Amino acid sequence: MKFTCDTKELSKACQTVSRAVATKTTVPTLEGIKIDADADGISVCGYNLELGITTRISAQSISEEGSTVLDAKTLCNIVKKLPDVHTDISIDEKDTATIESGTTNFTIVGLSAKEFPNIPAVDKKSEVNIPQPVLKSMIQQTLFAISENDSKPMYTGAQLAIENGKLTMVGIDGYRLAVCKETIDYSGANFDFIVPAKTLMEVSRLLSDDANKAVHISVGIRHAIFAIGDYEIFTRLLEGDFLDYKAVLPKQCATSLKVNVQDFAKSVQRVSLLISDKLRSPIVCDFSGTDGTIKLSSNTAMGRASDSIPAEISGEDVHIGFNHKYLADALSHTDCDEVRLQLNSPLSPMVILPDAGDSFVFLVLPVRLRAAGNES
User: Fold this and answer.
1) How far is CA 294 from CA 5, 258, 286, 287, 313, in A?
2) What does the domain layout of the chain look like in residue ranges?
3) Which of 46, 97, 186, 363 sits a CA distance of 20 to 30 A from 309?
């Protein structure tokens, strides 16, 4: 195999597909990037049996067609430092690669492409196009609530459900719930699937803010493909019965309020300054409609912090505690200036909604408090 290509284009492709390369495996080829050169150009692929990323780049010339697998870390480090705008790569019959750019020359040992596993074909039982900014925003608003606990694998991903022209994305970790909804141009049969969090992170990195660009999603029984520009992300889907989020959403609330997101988030940050992994304590929130304030406080061995912010509050007063990280995460992933909060009791989850509509719904479970305001 022998070809010449643009150095920056090759470097970008290698850096991107390398994120799907296995880091700890007994199969050496899975730690490499597969490169194919044929009449259509150059294909670059990384694949770890669960996640695969492929792309094609143009070639200035292809003298000999062929395939090889090169160690991903070594290849990425080399290509990133090459000095010339063009790079020549040639592979001999023993899969030894020679990489030349300007006056720089590397020779590295490769592996046979025959040992590289093929990415399975997806039967594409369902397909949908989604504007890239829409999917990007939904992923960003959902990822924080996805579980990192492998005891329930289906919750280490987000459920995407397409139903009656709406896309709903749901993430849950046992302490938080995030639901995002958007109307999309789709009139086919309803379907849903569960995508691993790592896949969604890689998809989000490639998505554009250009509303004229769409991501094409092909979904099979066990796998799916996200086609984004020149890239395709292949993923294994998670299996299992996902939570019926509608069943856990409170049907009514005893206390409702509207508050400025930045004011609330900054107040949470301030009273969290005395809390650490060694000095654990919940943030105590007192929602009082009498004086229209949210009073926040924390109490640790280091000392005590308190703060208050104004809010429009109606209903019963509530004295409730939260894990400061969970509360801060939820507030940081809203996309509006004000949010509506709904509460029922000190032991019921707090619902966070946008100031209008229900494009997102976040649930944050409370921490049980002692009389003194500490975690029990």
Assistant:
1) 60, 11, 6, 5, 9
2) 2-115, 126-245, 249-364
3) 363
C-alpha 136/C-alpha 201 separation (Å) is 10
Q: Is the four-CA dihedral 99, 105, 107, 108 of positive or negative sign?
A: negative
Q: State the fold for domain 126-245.
A: DNA Polymerase III; Chain A, domain 2 (3.10.150)
Q: pLDDT digit string (tens) for 7-54?
A: 999 999 999 999 999 988 889 999 999 999 998 899 999 999 999 999
Element of type H or E holding 262? helix 261-271
Write the CATH number of the domain with boundaries 2-115. 3.10.150.10
Domains 2-115 and 249-364 share a fold: yes
Residue 366 tokens, joined: 């409370």
Instruction: Give the total residue count for the chain.
Output: 376
**Residue found by looking up tokens 């990280």 in the block:** 325
In the block, tokens 């959902």 appear at 142
**Cα of 294 vs its chain's centroid, Å:** 32
Closest listed residue to residue 256, CA positions, set 361, 354, 343 = 343
* Rounded Cα–Cα distance for residues 230 and 306 (Å): 52
* Contact in structure between 13 and 58 (CB atoms under 8 Å): no
The total of other beta-carbon atoms located within 10 Å of residue 275's CB is 20
Residue-wise pLDDT for 151-208, tens only, equals 899 999 999 999 999 999 999 998 999 999 999 999 999 999 999 999 999 999 999 9
The β-bridge partners of 219 are 126, 224
